[in-house]
Amino acid sequence: QVQLVESGGGLVQAGGSLRLSCAASGRTFSSLAMGWFRQASGKEREFVAAISWSGGGTYYRDSVKGRFTISRDNAKNTVDLQMNSLKPEDTAVYYCAAEPPGGSWGYWGQGTQVTVSS
Question: Contact at 8 Å (CB) between 91 and 114?
Fold first, then answer.
């Protein structure tokens, strides 16, 4: 089992920045791929960014490339999402997720609200 707890959401003006953090416990963190997803009101959950177990591979949805950066610290069991140049369309509940080797995104945090005002 993996427990994930997000923090760092909030209200920010367009063009501003926020940093989300996810703390993991319960399973060897360094074996997990980690990701961030988001769900806007009335829409389906969508992929935002992911990072491999080693941190050597990072992946982003096109709309956040160049603005968001995912990183991890395997010594602290944390994964962060630095979000710059935020836009109103980035408004959503952001979820941290974990993927074990050979598995799927089966572990989820409770989510943290990000609101970007225009």
Answer: yes
> For the CA atoms of 72, 74, 78, 79, what is the dihedral angle to 10 degrees?
20
pLDDT in tens, 2-59: 999 999 999 999 999 999 999 999 878 989 999 999 999 999 999 999 999 999 999 9
Strand 10-13 versus strand 112-117 pairing type: parallel
Rg of the chain over CA atoms, in angstroms?
13
The Cα–Cα gap between 8 and 31 comes to 24
SS (H, E, C) the chain: CCEEEEECCEEEECCCCEEEEEEEECCCHHHCEEEEEEECCCCCCEEEEEECCCCCCEEECHHHCCCEEEEEECCCCEEEEEECCCCHHHCEEEEEEEECCCCCCCEECCCEEEEEEC
